[in-house]
Amino acid sequence: MTSLNRPALADSVRTNGATANPWWSNAVVYQIYPRSFQDTNGDGFGDLKGITSRLDYLADLGVDVLWLSPVFKSPQDDNGYDISDYQDIDPLFGTLEDMDELLAEAHKRGLKIVMDLVVNHTSDEHAWFEASKDKTDPHADWYWWRPAKPGHEPGTPGAEPNQWGSYFGGSAWEYCPERGEYYLHQFSKKQPDLNWENPAVRKAVYDMMNWWMDRGIDGFRMDVITLISKHVDANGELPGIAGALTEDLPVGEEGYSSPNPFCADGPRQDEFLAEMRREVFEGREGFLTVGEAPGITPERNEHITNPANKELDMLFLFDHVGEGEGRSKWELVPFQPSWLRDKLAAQQDAVRNAGWASLFFCNHDQPRVVSRWGDDSTEEARVRSAKAFGLLLHMHRGTPYVYQGEELGMTNAHFTSLDQYRDLESINAFRQRVQEAKIQSPESMMESLAAISRDNARTPMQWDASVYAGFTAPDADVEPWISVNPNHAAINAAAEFDDPDSVYGFYKQLIALRHDNPIVSAGDWNPVDGADEHVYAFVRELDGRRLLVMVNLSGRPVDLPAESAALLAAGVDESQIVIATRGASHAVVSIANNELAGWEGVVIAL
Q1: Cα–Cα nearest to 414, from 364, 450, 372, 449
Q2: Residue 223 annotated to the active site
Q3: Of these residues, 78, 90, 254, 292, which one is catalytic?
Q4: How far apart are CA 254 and CA 183, in angstroms?
Q5: What is the number of structural domains in the chain?
Q6: Active-site choice (181, 223, 455, 529)
Q7: Domain with 150 in it: what CATH number?
Q8: For the Glycosyl hydrolase family 13 catalytic domain, which residue ranges apply (predicted)?
């Protein structure tokens, strides 16, 4: 593990009531999706050597931690989130030696490396799962195996143990002829859920984690970690299974019931996370643990991330990224800034006294924020809205996460045909909703995919204006695994790197501000003008010093909301402007006119 090459906060600064300020409270994490970051061997897929080759770019940006989406050995059914060997690198990305080189070169630059840990499930090609097909093998109870529904022929429609549906479409149960039973998979049928009730499973996971920590990584981002504890009855049975004491939920419009209420934040969640902390991290320093947390409320986030409880450092909550979705993920509704503000406010309030927040709008599972809630219809609108959402996110209290290309203002892919998509979730959702359940028209579903498909975040990183955006060589024999966004000729790192007015230049300012200003990293957060329809405003405060943050989340000029205007009644000069999306002089004029221009954001020292 490595130390950071950035200013340290004073020991007197505290992030919550439980502990002195930890190293990650003024750090910024950068997520890399390896298959789309940099290809060095011309096979159309990014690789570890590609990441190593771009470390100077990341160091220049100023980020502190690199989170790598999975690079473990995998059949790649779900782009590496189906792991067949936790202690080897998939040849698609390179070798263990390449990983060691990346660690060494990152640490030389003061960059930490966090790996993606996927232990709610494995690949169905993992040796553990292969062994579990034999009921006499010691691994027989390492997964959730159940017999067919009584009175039904195993492997026939309707014989599944209960009515649960997979998040990736179809039943959450898959029949295995070798064992004569079904196994649970909340995601792809090639991603069987591990049985964390079995202590042997947990020990194997902890041993693997220790192996990686001893090799020199700096922590883990833990995929759907809040799904590892299932809600079972007194006999250890899942809801809706024959003889279970707990009933299943009714089926929904797609023909299945949801496993989420019974698989998210189960009764042993805290126990498992505390055990992991003891078995893997106790006695180590300088690490980071962050968990992806479906089904977790802001209040539960406070408990899990409270250092006194010794579970995880932080969690990714998802209630705020549901903005813009209707009854299901695939039904779109207009963006409402007030809705987003309410969700983020609840997250901030929950960790006011203890715990910590993760700050993100983008990742490998979310569309590009500038297309989702901003405006990418013109170059001017794209730049302004990208900066507005960047300012908004980074000025909250917590640890910001930047997803590759977000610092450039990269946009959605704007695909127009289904054959352009590679994402398993998107393709399966089209089949299930349009072709099978017939609850959505092809046109409507294509509109939804264009807006929120995960592939919007997975197009190749836009390094330059060459034919493949610098992701792979222009004369490569193989095209990238997914199409490059055509707008890479205008939106790319080479064009923005030396431009202080670019989105990249603005992100550098935001990251430096978090490093250098204790108010940003550790100050209290208090909302202002909570009823305004367009302006998201709040005050950050530490030791009597205050910053007012105002962001107009619309493309048209709006009046300053009343409470913010009252705080600025004495007037503002350029010396008070800490950072502004349109520059200090523009912000001073706007405030003097009692307004904010479209997508204008500003931070003012009061």
Answers
A1: 450
A2: yes
A3: 292
A4: 21
A5: 3
A6: 223
A7: 3.90.400.10
A8: 31-458
